[in-house]
Design goal:
Protein name: Helix-turn-helix transcriptional regulator
Structural class: alpha+beta
Pfam families: GerE
Distance between the termini: 73 Å
Oligomer: single chain
InterPro entries: Sig_transdc_resp-reg_C-effctor, TrmB-like, Tscrpt_reg_LuxR_C, WH-like_DNA-bd_sf
Length: 351
């Protein structure tokens, strides 16, 4: 409100006529009571001249006379009116702009149909978390998740714990798919114990990449390797397809409460059987480790034990022994039509 000050006094008295400084208030009040004031008495408060609250006496330039309080009030009210009018004009412009943008939005929806928001890219963890929280709040029936990797870290489990607890409170059922390696993580066991019968978990040798599906209406999948970007999918066909993929994997998976099946081959664990099958497919150690959710070092330790158990002294011989044992998927004790090639630790990946 009021007028903008200019000149050297602005730094010392940054205010308008509607909020005088204490010194200006005293000097102006004295001038109003006495009718005029000597110029030297107003030197400490140059704001009064800059705001036109004092002006020179035409009869004697050494004296200053005050602007009447009534005139000051009129000026202030006029300034307020001007500011309100300007604000109203800005509001009117904003409303017009809003209506224009809303019209464009309707045109896009008309031309693109429901697919306009069917796929949304979420860039950054904050946006991903916000979208996940929104989907959690809207969820009423079920949540399906696929969690790749190995042992679930406490930090990963704690990150989504508030959402899981909110879902449990509303009676939403949850089904989670993990790799077999996750069975060895105490954090996952603690999480499932906390959630009770609200969550059902199963495991597989390997699973697809991360997937979270709410009420068969919205799904989230990674959009880059670092998982700092995600896709929010609401297209009915895409969501239905992902739901079908989950159900197929779920039927193949083993309940977390049940033990892993025995391989039937003494000295070979279920994990080593899975590694043998992947070796027979020609995968490199690093790829095997990634798909099973274990470290490369652990994968190589299992391969070494596998070689020892099967009596293989080289990777080539290991491939033959894997085939004869039926660990490559062929009937046990029969040789494959073509030799099974098992890559060495540094060989390129055959996919």
């Amino acid at each position: 409100m009021g007028w903008v000050m200019a000149g050297h006094g602005a730094d010392e008295h940054p205010h308008g006529a509607d909020r005088l400084c204490a010194a200006g208030d005293r000097v102006y009040s004295r001038a109003v009571r006495r009718g005029r004031l000597q110029r030297r008495d107003a030197e400490p408060v140059p704001c009064l001249l800059e705001l036109a609250l004092l002006h020179p006496d035409p009869d004697d330039m050494d004296w200053l006379v005050p602007t009447s309080p009534q005139e000051v009030m009129t000026r202030l009210l006029r300034g307020v009116h001007d500011e309100v009018s300007a604000s109203q004009r800005r509001v009117g412009s904003a409303v017009e702009a809003f209506e224009w943008y809303a019209g464009l939005g309707r045109q896009i929806q008309t031309s693109a149909g429901a697919e306009g928001t069917a796929i949304r890219v979420l860039d950054g963890l904050a946006r991903i978390q916000a979208a996940m929280d929104e989907a959690t709040q809207a969820c009423t029936t079920e949540v399906l998740t696929v969690q790749p990797g190995g042992i679930r870290r406490e930090a990963e489990l704690s990150e989504g714990l508030h959402r899981a607890l909110a879902l449990r409170g509303r009676g939403v059922r949850m089904r989670d798919l993990y790799t077999h390696v996750a069975r060895h993580g105490q954090g996952l066991l603690n999480y499932l114990e906390l959630m009770g019968d609200t969550v059902e978990a199963r495991t597989l040798d390997e699973v697809v990449d991360r997937l979270i599906l709410f009420d068969r209406t919205v799904a989230f999948i990674p959009a880059n390797n670092e998982r700092t970007m995600a896709l929010e999918l609401r297209h009915p066909a895409l969501v239905a397809y992902l739901g079908t993929v989950f159900e197929r994997l779920w039927r193949l998976a083993i309940p977390l409460t049940a033990p892993l099946p025995d391989t039937g081959i003494e000295g070979i664990s279920h994990r080593e059987q899975s590694i043998a099958a992947l070796l027979a497919e020609g995968h490199q150690d690093a790829v095997i480790a990634e798909r099973l959710g274990i470290s490369v070092r652990t994968a190589r330790a299992h391969i070494a034990r596998l070689s020892e158990t099967l009596g293989a002294t080289s990777r080539t011989q290991l491939g033959v022994r894997i085939a004869h044992a039926g660990l490559d998927g062929s009937p046990r004790g029969t040789a494959p039509a073509a030799p099974v090639s098992v890559p060495g630790p540094e060989s390129p990946t055959a996919r």
